[in-house]
Amino acid sequence: MVGVGMTVQRSSRRDVTGVELINEAVRAALSDAAMTRKDIDAVVIGNMDHFEGINYVDTWSVDGSGALGKPVMKMTTGGTTGTTVAMGAYYHVASGMFDRVLAIGWEKNSESDTTGAIITAFDPFWDRPTFGGAVAGLALEATQYMAETGASEEDAAYVAVRDRKNALNNPYAHLRMELTIQAIMETPYLAWPVKLGDMCPRTDGACALVFASEDVADDFPNPPAWVRGLADRHLWAYTSDPYVNQKVKGGTWFPAMEMATRELYDRVGITDPLEQFDVAELYLPYSFAGLRYMESLGFCERGGGPELVRSGATDMGGKCPVNPSGGVLSSNAIGATGLLRVAEAALQMQGRAGDRQVQGASLALATGFGGCYWSDEIVLGSEMPDVGRG
Amino acid sequence: MTEDWRDSQEILVMDGRIKVPYAWSAGEVGTTYLESLRDAERFLGTRCPVCGIVYHLPRMHCPDCFEACPEWVELESTGTLVTWTIARRPHPALSPLAPPFGFGVIRLDGADTGFLHLLYGFGVGSLRSGMRVEAVFARERTGSILDVSHFRPSREVV
Fold it and tell me: How many Å apart are CA B87 and CA B89, to the nearest integer?
């Protein structure tokens, strides 16, 4: 990755249309890489279906995306859209067919009813009549997690406090707040045990990244951030039973994330993520994810999430700071959210993350999370991997 | 972006609504299942001939083994509450129900997988993962998953 562009994330960006918002991020990325539109070989773009009511975003957005007269492909996979767009751009380059590919993720959550739009992803017979929306779906997970591990609501609140405090260092973030666990606990319940303070916001924003092949990676002003490895796993469980594969796959905790993690860590050589990763930008859509997903990502044993985060190991200055950007709990323009995780990890690898920089960071984990418990994971490094040049 | 655009200009916003009619088919498997709910108040699942998992809701094919699951299995109307939450806020676009009510993942007796349904008729603070629940069927049934009105804590004598 050789160029990063992001818009300021706000609850509403009425000053621009979707196409203009995309353009803002794209021009920032091109400028960052000292490129013009003409240098781009192909474009990969994604956002959430139905969120803005525009179906053929790849075509509709060409005036802003820079894809005019170029190969362009839309990729949309729900919450993981942004990481999928990054993976798609990487595949374009890694295939050898393209040298400079633009990855774009964007969303204007302010333009529709988020939960009303999300329900169109679910089965009309089996899911929609009893569908609880994004918040209740996550609450089902949190209830299960607390029952099985004894984790508390205060443990989860720690994560919300951490991420929003980190956002104070990120001028692009939507919510930048210094809060206390008590303040989170006093916010109203949306769906027990999930409170308003535990949830991500709805955000307008866009992000663009320039992927380049190793043959041209030295042609840009900034040092590249390298993709060291990636893996993704998707499954579907009729909304309702993320535990179906627990049975099928022999008692795993979060099957998609654990399957992706095993493959990725084997590929990259990660045996102790807490020690080996210098920084992580994780798609944590609500506070409880910051406990449970650490376990599925191998940072601690099952049930060890609360102890891990309360030890400070994931704070700025800790062993592996999580979400120096403020994460999803601070900004969630959904189609951009996963790509922002990759972009923030790339800035960390380039040493260009400003006040949120983790000093000396050379290995980073970025993840995307979506819908019915699926998972994209990418490892980035400051050095070119040994594989890659064949 | 101009940070103070709100001060200088009122941006025009056009309201819109996309309303498209659809006619979704339940298919043979779904129809068999829903007719059983509607006409006999009986839950049905399907068993994978390879891994032996009994799916409820029923699948025509096992998503893991990828084999056809032609065998129907009669299930109980009682089951175990795997996990749950309580909706606190109304969302008319999503559900006509008035909060508070519960959403639960329920694993019916005789099935290996859970499914999502509504919870009513429970005392505040009484829901627990692992508790026993039973189905309450709707009086007027139309061939929908809502032919089961909701689940409530089981009144069975253990």
Answer: 6
